[in-house]
Amino acid sequence: MAIYNVENVYYINQGTEPFASLKLKDNTTVQEYGCGVCAYGMLICQKEGYDTSSEAKQVVVDLIQECTNNSGLIDTRFSDKTINGVTYSVTEVNDMAQQIMDSIPVVARLADANNKAKHFVTKLGEKDV
Fold first, then answer.
1. How far is CA 107 from CA 26, 51, 65, 110, in A?
2. Closest to 46 in 3D by CA, of 106, 87, 97
3. What is the mean pLDDT of residues 19-28?
4. CA-CA distance, 24 to 78, in Å (whole number)?
């Protein structure tokens, strides 16, 4: 199992440029409904060592193109999608706490009582050395 250095995560803020004004497929913006592409974008940037706004922006643009539906919502079941030249798959984990304790960044989908997605966040942890 890979151990990630979570000290160097490029923070993608959906409310600031160069991300906020990017258009989703339904013509809404990342600022309005882009928490999913931003959360997954941070994971990809961290895994690949991307640390500039231009690299992160390209990841978010690719995520919008490859992993969102026509309503602009990210499909958390995407598999074998190419983002910024690298192929990824989403794996649902049974023990998110263990992933976090093992310093593996994860994306959490926060939902309401009807299991409707309300927000996505990237969760990070760091293993004690």
1. 23, 19, 19, 10
2. 106
3. 96
4. 17
Residues 6+ apart with CB under 8 A from 102: 1, 3, 125, 127
Q: How many CB atoms lie within 10 A of CB 120?
A: 19
Q: Which of 45, 54, 72, 43 is nearest to 18 (CA)?
A: 54
**85 pLDDT more than 70:** yes
The whole-angstrom separation of Cα 100 and Cα 117 is 21
Q: What does each C-alpha distance from 22 to 7, 17, 34, 89 come to in angstroms?
A: 27, 9, 9, 23
Q: Report in angstroms the alpha-carbon separations of 23 from 60, 82, 107.
A: 10, 19, 22
Q: Is 92 exposed, middle or buried (0-12, 13-18, 19+ CB in 10 A)?
A: exposed
Write out pLDDT tens, residues 35-62: 999 999 998 888 888 889 999 999 999 9
DSSP state of 117: E
